[in-house]
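Shall we go through a protein fold together, starting from nothing but its sequence? Please make up or recall a protein chain and show it to me in full. Go ahead whenever you are ready, and we will take it from there.
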Amino acid sequence: MNKNTLNIIDCTFRDGGYYTDWFFEKNLVEKTLKVLSKLPIDVVEIGFRQFKGEKNYGEYAYSTEKFLNSLAIPGNLKIAVMVETSHLNLFDETKQRKLFVSKVQSHIAMIRVCAYFKDFEKAKFICGYLKEIGYATTINIIHISKHSLSEIKEKMKHLKDFDLDVIYFADTFGNLVPETVKKIAEIFKNHTDIPIGFHSHENRGLALANVLCAIDSGVEWVDGTLSGMGRGAGNVSTEALLIEMMKLINKDIGISELLELLQCYFYPLREECGWGYTSYAHYASVKNIHPFLVQKILKNKNLKPKEIFMGIDECLS
């Protein structure tokens, strides 16, 4: 791990929103942003950017400019949002202009486009538009473990003319192991000069090990969430990344205020919502079942272990 090249994005209010329907108390968010602004966190992904639909989600599912203007955001903190290609007709410029103002009018510094490999052309189109109006951009390739290494090599050939700030691969199912993370990172490095990022999940209990392996393999951007708060079993925790960084540079970076925040707010929230490693999440990950499906099953507190495993197996049919 080299702090000179490593960039950390905290995704708590975006990925963690899968447990709260993107409702967060303003006081908590502003306290968190203030604490993170004092730490070597390069970007905070505040939520999604999408059009409002029928579902009653909190403001962090949309992260509108009006809403962001209502938050006390420290001036030194870069803000990102994520857009999913499945939620937007990316070839409709009218919709794009309604969804994104130019960078000079926005709190947002970076927009991350979440896409399957099959959506490369759509993702390329919107990233080109977003670069034109001033934003840093990333493409986050999801479901990476559903592709063989040879498939990933073939897909990466199409990245040569992409104008991006970062290209991410995401362990959506949380079933990668360090050896595979290393091989995927090497494929990315061999096929593009774009800086590489990695987004981990904890379903198999390997999120930190996978992230450290990714960094050792040349990945320059990594995501974390406070206390690991994220979809399914969650993510590598931001505090774990900071502690590892502290060990590397042999210097106290001052995380006591962050630990107090975790103790007062995020650990109780974790007890209430239930993210983190479980045997159920692990079982689902090795069967390539989406963690969101397991999360939905576990919401029923009356189910017995056998019924939970049966429910997971039914997701395969």
The chain is about 40% helix and 15% strand. Residues 256-273 form the longest helix (18 residues). Residues 226 and 238 are 5 Å apart (CA to CA). Residues 279-314 form one domain.
